Amino acid sequence: xxxxxxxxxxxxxxxxxxxxxxxxxxxxxxxxxxxxxxxxxxxxxxxxxxxxxxxxxxxxxxxxxxxxxxxxxxxxxxxxxxxxxxxxxxxxxxxxxxxxxxxxxxxxxxxxxxxxxxxxxxxxxxxxxxxxxxxxxxxxxxxxxxxxxxxxxxxxxxxxxxxxxxxxxxxxxxxxxxxxxxxxxxxxxxxxxxxxxxxxxxxxxxxxxxxxxxxxxxxxxxxxxxxxxxxxxxxxxxxxxxxxxxxxxxxxxxxxxxxxxxxxxxxxxxxxxxxxxxxx
Length: 280
Known about the structure:
Elements: E1 12-16, H1 21-37, E2 40-48, H2 49-56, E3 61-62, E4 71-72, H3 75-100, E5 104-111, H4 113-120, E6 126-130, H5 144-152, E7 157-160, E8 171-175, H6 179-191, E9 197-204, H7 207-220, E10 227-234, H8 238-248, E11 252-255, H9 263-272, E12 277-279
Parallel strand pairs: 1-2, 1-6, 2-5, 6-7, 8-9, 8-11, 9-10, 11-12
Antiparallel strand pairs: 3-4, 7-12
Helix pairs in contact: 1-3, 4-5, 8-9
């Protein structure tokens, strides 16, 4: 395994924008990563077609704070509101991309939001999303676009929430010797820079198996100026893994859904843990 080679080859990063706090956090992280990986950055804004369909329904009305009677929904008002949101999102992209000095583009689409974002990002090497969106129903767990990205499983997906920085976070990678976990480890190495801590959580069928995996990694990995900490955990169930991750309180979790742990367990783990997650 290469010691510091950028094996993930990320040259184009796409980030979904909707002006929510999770979206702005995602944009900042995406720009930080674009600068460190010399990648281009594309912001994606989707005009939700469901809003226009709703406005066309004769029984749909809105009640404003300053009026006592319900009013018919005006589709042209939706149009203006979405254009304003798009301009706000583009302004945020311009400001943050210039701050990090990365090449950027902004694209607007109309459609079902989750499907449109996934489709628009098909040429990107990494898709960055907020764990939740603007909807009040997304306060816990993943938003609809994040769930769609996990289900599609076509590319590396980075799920972000506010409060984390790519400059400071410790990294925790799950490793069991499988091809999926090797890919995750390579990505984690690419993201671990001078002064950062890389936690490697090794799963083994037995304690001896875990020791052998650790010994092989120690012989192949060096991170000058960074700390590597090895941890062992029996390959049991998702609840045990979840408790350990919360106990170690790592910043970024890197993992694959092509490990010895079931794909369903990995996705449940991502949904339940309120941490930034990179799924490769």
